[in-house]
Amino acid sequence: MSELHELHDYRDVAPGDEEEVRVGPRLLGYVVGLGLAIVLTITSFFVAGTDLVWQPSIPVALVVLAMAQMGVHLVFFLHITTGADNTNNVLALAFGLLIVFLVIGGSLWIMSNLNHNMMPMDQIMQMQR
Amino acid sequence: MTDATLAFAEADAHMQGAVVAHDGPAPKRIVTGYGFWIFLLSDIVMFSCFFASYAVLLGQTAGGPSGAQLFDLKGVAAETACLLLSSFTCGLASIAADVRSARWYQAAMAATCVLGLAFLALEGHEFAGLVARGAGPTRSAFLSAFFALVGCHGMHVSAGILWLLTMMAQVFAKGFRADIMRRLLCFALFWHALDIIWVAIFSVVYLLGSAA
After folding, report:
1. Contact assignment for A104 to B48 by CB distance below 8 Å
2. Among A6, A13, A95, whose Cβ lies nearest the Cβ of B28?
3. Per the confidence metrics, is the pTM higher than 0.90?
4. Which of A110, B29, B48, B141 could form a disulfide with A100 if both were Cys (CB 3.0 to 4.6 A apart)?
């Protein structure tokens, strides 16, 4: 059964799939993705070590550059597109991102609030005596 | 016949037309890719828990060394280069598989494997250096969270390399069959997703850690 070649319907695209069958455009896609990723990575490493920019802006810049690079990876390597046949993948991605932000943001928020309201450690030690 | 039933019949005819125009179930390749994409997203949610625990425990160094004193950015840059290039060669392997070129496929997969092993060697060297300097996972809550997060990614890369070698062997033994091609699609997705998680790790853990 599995030896049968399935009919490929090229209008349907899975994540990681390509609409094109020709080598040229696909290769170009990976080369462009690699180039963008290298530029963003080098910028990140440069920004982290430089004193040319206003220092408090560095963490924000690093987070923005990281998000941009993840976007580049999603589009050029994982082939997540806005096409009609890719809607399921995009919706699943959106839900995953929602959970990720809830987990990270919620943890940071709750834990910093607890930390803020917690009695200093030396006072806890005194109460235990 | 009343006007209402006439209208209903017309509406029904219209509905049937819509049903006939539908394409039917999606090909197995699409369904497999979608399912594996859901798995990858759940894996990313799991990593987000490790990231959250790392962010919460970032300041809890228990008097031990902080990230800025420990991290060697040159080593991290080398690891990033290895993983990024391996993602590219993995893409080349999927192109080679789609044009059914076994020679190029095996060459690209071998390059991916070598780059992945180089990444693991660099990471192992870094971990061994940290433990030798007394900054092992038992030193502080910060270091426990660091080793858990980065080590979990390293375990994923190790598992990915085992899968990669399996896929090389399967294509060698069975050729580019439809089921093998679906496994290749999933492997490529997995390998590229590992690179996305590494982007978050080198930005949040290493660069933010040494900039702060």
Report:
1. yes
2. A6
3. no
4. B48
